[in-house]
Design goal:
Blueprint lengths: L2 H16 L9 E2 L2 H18 L7 E5 L6 E5 L2 E5 H6 L3 H16 L2 H5 L9 H15 L10 H12 L3 H18 L5 H15 L17 H14 L10 H16 L2 H10 L3 H14 L3 H14 L4 H13 L3 H14 L4 H14 L2 H14 L4 H13 L3 H14 L3 H14 L5 H19 L1
Parallel strand pairs: 2-4
Antiparallel strand pairs: 1-2, 3-4
Helix pairs in contact: 1-6, 1-22, 2-4, 2-8, 2-11, 4-8, 4-9, 6-20, 8-10, 9-10, 11-12, 11-13, 12-13, 13-14, 14-15, 15-16, 15-17, 16-17, 17-18, 17-19, 18-19, 19-20, 20-21, 20-22, 21-22
Length: 445
């Protein structure tokens, strides 16, 4: 890493660390099928905005509140509560269009001039913590003397937010129209936000300058004007409703009560989505027999869908049927060899099966494609340890802690890794990245 990039990394680490606390950090929900469905919904929006969708990852934060957030030019975060609350694909696309406008309009580039360091594990960990904290609207500090610094830093970070949000609404409505999506869906989303604020007992005390978005009642008036001015110009995607049903159905079936999944499965008009939701719901109960019956019917209905085979592998794996699980994941990988989360699941199944030698290269490939998967990093550390590579095991553990924003713990393992790995090697350099981030945060505190 070049010297100027290290300097920028430390500056970004200090700023982002000041904007978040351990208490505000929330977990990500990583699922290959959900993320693929979100990418499908986002494709026409990104194309209309002139953005390369291959470079933007849409991640789901496990939070019941209604919010979405862009932390840099490559990561969009949407709260699970928002996805489950929205009623149509177009409404979710309105959220994506607004956040895409922040990227297309250069808002993030101006706010943080260089986020390339977020490609490191430590940088990603801090970035994800920022997204969780800022998206939740938590502007409180952690403890003691850090309160003033955090409050000041967050206001600096959000100082242009109000004008940027208005600009993003206008651009987002225009992108929707270009993609053939009725911008009236954005009006519905803002109306939902306005209703949430009206029922909030604390809404009258909210400081609009401290929010990531201005007050929804102000935005709603403007968005109604944009929606009236723009009409659908392109051709809408006839499959958008299907992909929304898959994303919302699987997300809800996993994080809500199993009865919700069974009830919603009866409502959907897509038979394969209903089978998927039933399989998840029965698995959550747990009722292994019914779960496997539903997922087997799903695989029969969608034999070339890697996500159907992946779900079958997950159910088998968590039912301790390790050999069958590994076979199901292997089929999924053959259908989607570049899907990192499926590769990670396959590696996990191979480890459970006891095939460490085969699991290690699979997990390494998964990490190369997506270093943001915490469970994969844990499995990779285990595979390295079992093969006697303690240096890389410590490094994987350090990066896993870094992803969680636990940089003190990450630094302990990074020091151990640096002492075991050849100086100047790729692994040693990755350990230095973690140490630099931890040191920067420690100095700030």
């Amino acid at each position: 890493m070049a010297a100027f990039l290290i300097k920028r990394f430390l500056q970004v680490a200090l700023l982002l660390a000041a904007l978040t606390t351990g208490a505000s950090a929330q977990s990500l929900i990583r699922d290959a099928e959900i993320e693929y469905a979100l990418r499908k919904l986002a494709q026409p929006i990104f194309a209309a905005a002139g953005l390369n969708g291959n470079h933007i990852k849409i991640l789901v934060i496990n939070d019941s509140s209604l919010n979405a957030f862009v932390a840099d030019n490559q990561h969009m975060f949407i709260h699970s509560g928002l996805i489950l609350k929205l009623k149509t694909a177009e409404e979710l696309q309105a959220v994506i269009a607004h956040e895409a406008a922040h990227i297309a309009n250069g808002h993030i580039s101006r706010r943080l001039s260089n986020m390339r360091s977020a490609r490191t594990a430590a940088g990603l960990g801090i970035l994800l913590s920022l997204a969780a904290g800022a998206a939740s609207g938590n502007t409180t500090a952690g403890t003691g003397a850090a309160i003033g610094a955090m409050s000041t830093a967050q206001r600096v970070f959000l100082s242009h937010t109000r004008s940027e949000e208005n600009s993003a609404d206008q651009s987002g409505a225009r992108f929707m129209a270009r993609a053939g999506i009725d911008p009236q869906a954005m009006v519905k989303v803002l109306d939902l936000f306005r209703g949430q604020e009206a029922f909030s007992s604390t809404s009258r005390h909210i400081d609009p300058y401290a929010l990531t978005h201005p007050m929804s009642r102000d935005r709603l008036r403007a968005v109604k004007g944009y929606a009236a001015a723009y009409g659908p110009q392109g051709k809408p995607d006839p499959n958008a409703g299907y992909w929304y049903a898959r994303a919302r159905g699987k997300l809800g079936a996993f994080i809500r009560n199993p009865n919700w999944g069974l009830r919603e499965a009866r409502k959907t008009s897509y038979k394969d989505v209903a089978l998927m939701m039933k399989a998840v719901a029965y698995h959550q109960m747990p009722n292994v027999k019914k779960a496997l019956k539903a997922v087997d019917a799903l695989v029969k209905a969608r034999p070339n869908d890697p996500y159907a085979h992946e779900l079958r592998g997950q159910i088998l794996l968590e039912s301790r049927k390790f050999n069958a699980a590994a076979a199901a994941y292997a089929k999924a990988v053959s259908l989607a060899p570049r899907e990192a989360l499926i590769l990670a699941g396959y590696g996990h199944a191979l480890l459970a099966q006891g095939n460490v030698k085969k699991a290690l290269p699979v997990l390494e490939k998964a990490r190369a494609r997506d270093p943001q998967d915490e469970r994969m990093m844990r499995d990779l550390a285990m595979a390295y340890a079992k093969t006697g590579n303690n240096g890389m095991a410590s490094l994987a553990t350090a990066e896993r802690y870094a992803l969680r924003g636990r940089l003190i713990d990450a630094a302990l393992h990074a020091k151990r890794a640096a002492g075991l790995l050849p100086r100047g090697s790729a692994g040693w350099n990755r350990a230095q990245d973690v140490l630099r981030a931890a040191q920067a945060v420690a100095k700030r505190r």
